[in-house]
Each structure stands twice: as structure tokens, then as C-alpha cells.
């Protein structure tokens, strides 16, 4: 092993060699530690306060049985769902932004989360109105309807963008159009709903972790157990794709297949996350750009983005429950944090073009 730069080293293991950037290793490790501490702090806050030390002892099986019940049965599902949702959104944002080579490429901008909102609002509004469509949506339930809406929006995005491959610029333009159409459809559904159904729909579309159970966490965990390793396996392809389509073809990348796999992985990650918690906005937009600045790389790192997404959602939920006079849905707080960042991106992009 010999040093090549101050931040990277050449590593050789038998016939395999490569360059290791220590910031790319330290940032995920540090973020993982922060995630554990923030989760423990969040687990201890509530009507029955529990110290962080007692929380950690309970998690390793050394705590009081009454505390174990409160932590593992009542509070842990909410924290686990929040961490998994943040992981999925951070991963999806990194995939979209790297593929499109555009920091504005996120599920919120591309219409996928809005597609999930259409499905969920339709399930809430039409199920209360009766009829065949209402019976079908009512039978599916809000999470499944949201999952179907997100997958449909992602499929439309892929189909409308495809022209012997997927162009990142066209992806963003088509996504914005889909977002606008889905938002209009959501508004139309809300205008025909009665006040009770409309109130329930508004609670869902703000993004919330309230009343989450292990039934919400298990589908997320199972999906991420498949999607996350597959996404990490595309890291080399993503590194090539950022140099342009012609370069990727010249290096032997099967471009249409690689592009389709990356977009599908991102869409599935977003779909299951939104189905579990509602649209927790701006996480997928902000987190990859924070991760790329922390690691000092040329593109958003997948693992660091996923872990930072988990920290952001769990931390925002903790702040929304404890730091404010009244508890708020986590999606409101992430929107408050992310909206100024979006404006800054737009202003910076305009300055660069002028």
C-alpha cells in the first residue's frame, strides 16, 4: 500500500488493486454512528422519557422489561420507518442526480412522489364515495394505492423519456410535466372530496410518521435489502455515465440497459418509501448534494447519501415532535429546510448561465 494523495491511497489485494479515498469511508461510518445516537435520542423522547444510556442498554437486551415494551413496541416502529424512508429517498436522489448529471433531478421534481399522492388521495376520496372504483381503491388501501401511483408515474417517466436511451435533460423536463399533471389531478380529487376525506388526504400528503407500525417497516426493509445492494453494484456504471453517453459506449457500457436499471431502482426505492410515510419532500433533493460535499467526490455517493437521508428524516421527526410548541408531520419540517435550498440551486444555476 502506498500513498498517492493526501486523501486517497492505492490498495492492492492479490491481483486486485484500486484507489481508496478515506473520506468516502469515514463519512458513511461517521453518519452511521450519528444515526444510532439520533435514533436512541428519539426513542427516549415521549410521554415516558428514557435516557439514551437506558435506550442503548434496552436495545442490546439489558434493559428493564417495561422500558423494552415502550421502546420496541410503541416507539421503535416509527423510528425504523423514518430511517428506512430516509435511506430509500437518499439513495434514489443520488441515483437520479448522478444519472441525469443534474442536482435538480429528484423524485419530488420528477413527479414520482406526486404520482404517489394521486394514488393515495384517490384511495381516500373515491373509497368514501362508493362505486366500483371506490370499492377497488378501498380494498387496496392507501399504502398500496400510493405505491401503484408512484410506480405508474415512474413507468410513464421512463416511457416518455426513452429515445434509444434516456437523456438526463429530457428526463427532468418530462418529470416536471408529469409533476404538473399529477398535482392538477390531486387538486381535482380534493375539490370533489367531502371535508372529512379532504382533511385525511391533506394529512397524508404532508408526509408523516405518526402511527407507524412494524407492518409499515417490513415491506420497506425487504425492498431495500434487494434495491440497496443492486444500486451499490451500479456504482462503476454510474461513474462512467457521468462522463456522457458517448464515453460510456466507448468504455463498453450497455447504455440502454444500464440507464433502465438505474431509473427502475430509483423509482422502486421512492415508491416503497412514499407508500410507507407519504411524500417526505426535499430529502432526495438535498441529501445527495450534502453527501458529495462531505466526501469531496465528483458525484453523489450512494451509501453516504442513503445514511444521511436516514439521519435527516429521523432528526427532522425528532425536532418536529419535541423542539416545536406543537408536534408537526415530518414532511412539513423537511419542506421548510429544503425549499430555500431549491431556490438557492435555481439562483446559482441562473448566475452560471448569465
From TrEMBL:
Pfam families: FecCD (PF01032)
Bilayer topology term: Multi-pass membrane protein
Transmembrane spans: 25-44, 79-97, 109-129, 135-159, 171-189, 218-241, 261-288, 326-347
Keywords on record: Cell membrane, Membrane, Transmembrane, Transmembrane helix, Transport
Localization (cell): Cell membrane
Gene3D superfamilies: ABC transporter involved in vitamin B12 uptake, BtuC (1.10.3470.10)
Family statement: Belongs to the binding-protein-dependent transport system permease family. FecCD subfamily.
Protein name: Iron chelate uptake ABC transporter family permease subunit
Species, as recorded: Blastococcus jejuensis
Amino acid at each position: 500500500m502506498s500513498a498517492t494523495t493526501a486523501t486517497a491511497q492505492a490498495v492492492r489485494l492479490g491481483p486486485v488493486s484500486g484507489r481508496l479515498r478515506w473520506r468516502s469511508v469515514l463519512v458513511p461510518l461517521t453518519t452511521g454512528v450519528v444515526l444510532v445516537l439520533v435514533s436512541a435520542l428519539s426513542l427516549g423522547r415521549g410521554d415516558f422519557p428514557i435516557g439514551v444510556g437506558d435506550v442503548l442498554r434496552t436495545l442490546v437486551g439489558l434493559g428493564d422489561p417495561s422500558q423494552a415494551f415502550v421502546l420496541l413496541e410503541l416507539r421503535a416502529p416509527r423510528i425504523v420507518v423514518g430511517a428506512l424512508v430516509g435511506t430509500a429517498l437518499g439513495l434514489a436522489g443520488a441515483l437520479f442526480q448522478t444519472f441525469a448529471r443534474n442536482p435538480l433531478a429528484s423524485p419530488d421534481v420528477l413527479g414520482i412522489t406526486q404520482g404517489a399522492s394521486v394514488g393515495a388521495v384517490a384511495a381516500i376520496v373515491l373509497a368514501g364515495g362508493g362505486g366500483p372504483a371506490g370499492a377497488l381503491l378501498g380494498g387496496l388501501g392507501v399504502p398500496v394505492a400510493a405505491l401503484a401511483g408512484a410506480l405508474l408515474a415512474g413507468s410513464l417517466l421512463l416511457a416518455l423519456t426513452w429515445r434509444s436511451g434516456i437523456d438526463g435533460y429530457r428526463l427532468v423536463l418530462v418529470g416536471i410535466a408529469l409533476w404538473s399533471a399529477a398535482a392538477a389531478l390531486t387538486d381535482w380529487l380534493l375539490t370533489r372530496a367531502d371535508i372529512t376525506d379532504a382533511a385525511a388526504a391533506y394529512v397524508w400528503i404532508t408526509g408523516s410518521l405518526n402511527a407507524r407500525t412494524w407492518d409499515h417497516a417490513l415491506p420497506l426493509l425487504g425492498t431495500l435489502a434487494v434495491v440497496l445492494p443492486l444500486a451499490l453494484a451500479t456504482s462503476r456504471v454510474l461513474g462512467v455515465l457521468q462522463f456522457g453517453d458517448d464515453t460510456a459506449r466507448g468504455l463498453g457500457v450497455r447504455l440502454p440497459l444500464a440507464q433502465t436499471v438505474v431509473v427502475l431502482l430509483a423509482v422502486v426505492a421512492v415508491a416503497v418509501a412514499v407508500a410507507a410515510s407519504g411524500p417526505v419532500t426535499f430529502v432526495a433533493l438535498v441529501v445527495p448534494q450534502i453527501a458529495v460535499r462531505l466526501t469531496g467526490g465528483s458525484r453523489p455517493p450512494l451509501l453516504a447519501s442513503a445514511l444521511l437521508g436516514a439521519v435527516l428524516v429521523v432528526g427532522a421527526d425528532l425536532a418536529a415532535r419535541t423542539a416545536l410548541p406543537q408536534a408537526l408531520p415530518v414532511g412539513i419540517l423537511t419542506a421548510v429546510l429544503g425549499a430555500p435550498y431549491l431556490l438557492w440551486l435555481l439562483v446559482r444555476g441562473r448566475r452560471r448561465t448569465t
